[in-house]
Amino acid sequence: MRKNIVAGNWKMNTTVPEGVQLAKEVCEAVSSAQGLKCDVIVGVPFTHLTAVRQVIDINKVGLAAQNCADHTSGAYTGEVSAAMVASTGANYVILGHSERRGYYNETPEMLKEKVDMALANGLKVIFCCGESLEERENGSFKEVIGGEIRDSLFHLTAEQMANIVIAYEPIWAIGTGKTATSDQAQEIHALIRGLLADKYGAQVADDTTILYGGSCKPSNAPELFAKPDIDGGLIGGASLKAADFMGIVTAF
Ligand code: 13P
Fold this sequence. Notes:
Oligomer: single chain
Mean pLDDT: 98
Strand content: 5-15%
Number of strands: 8
Low-confidence stretches: none
Bound molecules: 1,3-dihydroxyacetonephosphate
């Protein structure tokens, strides 16, 4: 059975003390909540990983980096390797976010390397995909999303796929206040699950958690999460306040 997950992606927000405080609040709220029906993860800046790891119970709140390098080690000034991320005690890494693809020119080939580095170091991957507004409007969006998944994930074995979570994030819905309708999201989630079934079989497809991201908030999360193929959310803006984030965590 696949897990429901609500993961925060803090992006480039909070100082270390602010992040530690936010992580503490999330962990306390998760610890005292009764009967939660999802796993909870916080995706924090690299600088925060070690400090946040010390104030959370990793069995209650997972810890994700927002990127890792596509090389093992060496002369790559400013880069952070998957081994370094794992050594902080983090257990997840977010890869392929549209902001990294768009602003930092991350290609499917680079992402394939990053996925391999993450898995080789025992990290689970939250792999993001999603179309631009132009691609939605010109009708190429299904091909775009399929290509992103095929090009960076389909070299993996079925066993490795157990460590992959997929996040569908339509770029036009990120930070815009414009959420995909629950039917639009469900259509793409079912499409992604179908691609997984064709490649890996029904069991892997059924077991893979597929998250929705893009202006998800406490008010729209219940309708999104009620859809059969939407297994939770990857949350940007609304993950920066513990109360808002918990409003989504408790939406199942
Ligand atoms: P928002 O929730 O701020 O729209 O961001 C979504 C996102 O990009 C999560 O990775």
